[in-house]
Design brief:
It contains three helices and 23 strands. The protein is mainly beta.
């Protein structure tokens, strides 16, 4: 088993300063050309230049599947099985190190949705570092790390470590997220993987949510309607923005394109379905979001950790 350890620290982006924000592309370009264009021998993992000169990790399985994730935001943007991408990146996505990447599987941390800090937190706005790569029974694995810095502390003044492991198999993509409190005082957070799946929205559906308590954010996201899901098959007939509390550990997505995707998890206790409908007229027909989430805040004492896993499988 070949193992290669890496720890590449990329420039920290301070989104509060417009003058600073004009510099990341040049810095990313320098970092990429200097040290990131390299094959990682024997493990099906390589780091290369992505869109906007942002460094990305490419996982290649000996079975022919492939995945891509950007170090900016620690965001998985592509998961291909038999050359078919099962994830979706919006056409308005910006790859400039200034805005979160709109698509794939962005991180929402340490806040899901609106709240005291910026929408969905800061993890999707920061550069993650590659700290390890490996292969497990021939399957490529990469591990990323995010730590607090001046940018995160400007809005959430705690010390933390996030470790994100991604494993690619022939027909599956699994992730493990570990949040550790490295501070001297307790903190709390909410989190989610805001996963965009490629879909034909009129034919897409999700099974497994019947009986869940719902918080329906349509029509008023600030005052969600409390209810109970009565449907065996949940569809996307228009605008959809609904939280499912205490969701089961497996959902089944039919993407309307001939694919069925099992979405399994551990410790992501909730689920969210979202489609913006006419709010994004250019692309709403081409995707649905089925998100694993932790809506109720997790409380961590110093040195405590919280772990959640997700397994996406083509079935």
């Amino acid at each position: 088993m070949a193992t290669v350890s890496m720890s590449w620290s990329l420039p920290t982006i301070n989104n509060s300063s417009p003058s600073h924000l004009r510099r990341p592309n040049r810095l990313h370009s320098v970092m990429t050309s200097a040290s990131l264009k390299k094959e990682i021998s024997g493990v099906g993992v390589r780091v290369t230049e992505g869109q906007g000169n942002l460094p990305k990790v490419v996982l290649s399985s000996p079975h022919g599947s492939e995945a891509e994730l950007y170090l900016f935001g620690g965001c998985v943007t592509s998961w291909k099985v038999a050359d078919k991408d099962l994830l979706f990146v919006r056409p308005d996505a910006v790859f400039n190190g200034q805005k979160p990447i709109s698509g794939g599987a962005p991180h929402c941390f340490p806040q899901f949705g609106p709240g005291p800090i910026q929408q969905h937190g800061f993890a999707r706005n920061m550069n993650w570092s590659v700290v390890d790569s490996d292969d497990v029974e021939g399957n490529p694995v990469v591990t990323l790390e995010l730590k607090d810095g001046p940018y995160s502390r400007s809005m959430w003044d705690f010390s933390f470590q996030a470790i994100y492991k991604v494993i690619l198999d022939a027909k599956s993509l699994s992730t493990e997220l570990v949040i550790t409190n490295t501070d001297k005082i307790p903190f709390s957070f909410s989190t989610a993987l805001h996963t965009y799946f490629r879909a034909a929205v009129t034919g897409a559906s999700v099974r497994g949510l019947r009986g869940c308590k719902t918080l329906n954010k349509d029509p008023d996201p600030k005052n969600p309607l409390v209810g109970k899901e009565e449907r065996d098959v949940v569809t996307f007939p228009g605008f959809v923005d609904c939280v499912y509390l205490e969701a089961p550990d497996e959902l089944l997505l039919d993407n309307g394109l001939g694919d069925k995707i099992s979405i399994k998890n551990s410790n992501w206790t909730d689920a969210v379905l979202w489609n913006p409908y006419l709010q994004m007229e250019a692309c709403y027909k081409d995707f649905v979001c089925v998100e694993n989430a932790k809506i109720e805040k997790v409380q961590l004492d110093p040195e405590q950790s919280w772990t959640a896993t997700q397994l996406l499988s083509l079935v």
